[in-house]
Specification:
about 110 residues; mainly alpha; Cytochrome Bc1 Complex, Chain D, domain 2
Amino acid sequence: MCKKCLLIIMAIGFVFALIGTGTAFEQGNDRKGKYLFRKNCRSCHQDGATATPLNPNSKTQAQWERAFERYERLECADQWKALGDSDRTDILTYLHGHAFDSPSPATCE
């Protein structure tokens, strides 16, 4: 095999590796996200008395991403703003990783 062909194959493999590891959002800490979700979100979203009941598998991964991109529109936007960017990223990582269409959806919370 010629050197040029080998370089092209290696470059294509590298591009596919980059695409395969890329995500639509910055990865956070899944365990911290679970803790923060329970601490900050469950009190209102657990029984549905205060807000719509939510758990990680209530939405698809894309729906969670959209919710976090547009959190300013939600009724609880003030509580979201009180969280730091890294805390919101951690919560999204947890919810995204256990969403309805994820490889490991949450079965119960």
